[in-house]
Amino acid sequence: GNSVTQMEGPVTLSEEAFLTINCTYTATGYPSLFWYVQYPGEGLQLLLKATKADDKGSNKGFEATYRKETTSFHLEKGSVQVSDSAVYFCALNPQAGTALIFGKGTTLSVSS
Amino acid sequence: KAGVTQTPRYLIKTRGQQVTLSCSPISGHRSVSWYQQTPGQGLQFLFEYFSETQRNKGNFPGRFSGRQFSNSRSEMNVSTLELGDSALYLCASSLVRERATEAFFGQGTRLTVV
User: Fold this and answer.
1) Which member of B58, B90, B101 has the closest CB to residue A98?
2) pLDDT tens, residue by residue, B21-67
């Protein structure tokens, strides 16, 4: 079946540190891949997406590359800020329609 | 432009009762999906509606049902509530029913079953 595995948190970093949150997936066919973010007290919002192999999604300094050979979609940011503290969810959309399969989420805490 | 609106924001129900949650999508959005979020299981897909028809359903018992109206507003119903149904229920709307379409999420309804 379809599934998403992402690294367990929490991840605790100092401001300006490099961030990687690992995400791997299992899916039939060619899913679309997403990173959603949930800031404290807010709803989930799309951070970035990629729709085919080797696509790179980017937004707000975050990047992730769709790697079909390793079935991965790792999230990276070169220099995190305190305002990046949030829960990050990796997700895939395996078929026609808008149903999303989510990973368990990774809590990021950035201190100044 | 107003976002996705879910009502009520909080609910407390007793085991065995039923509950109805409401979701108003962003104006013009025709696809609505529902998710259950719990600390143990994370975010799990419940069902997807488009043009008043259920298009996809997740692995949940028949006690969970939903519907969509002609104005795209959606409701989900849970009958015979169990303690394990306590969760944050999230609704998401999308403009169209395409795989890479962005989903916009509401703030959720926090259901507590006692």
Assistant:
1) B101
2) 999 999 999 999 999 999 989 999 999 999 999 999 999 999 999 99
The C-alpha angle A81, A82, A84, rounded to 5 degrees, equals 70
Interface contact flag, B97 A101, Cβ < 8 Å: no
Tell me the residues of chain B between 32 and 51 that have a Cβ less than 8 Å away from chain A: 33, 35, 42-45, 48, 50
Q: What's the pLDDT tens digit per position in A64-101? A: 999 999 999 999 999 999 999 999 999 999 877 778 99
For residue A25, the Cα-to-chain-centroid distance in whole angstroms is 11
B60 touches chain A (CB under 8 A): no
Is A100 in the B-facing interface, judged by CB distances under 8 Å?
Answer: yes
Measured CA to CA, the distance from residue A57 to residue A70 in angstroms comes to 17
Distance CA B17, CA B11 (A): 12
**Token pair listed for A44:** 């989930």
Structure tokens at B29: 């959005």
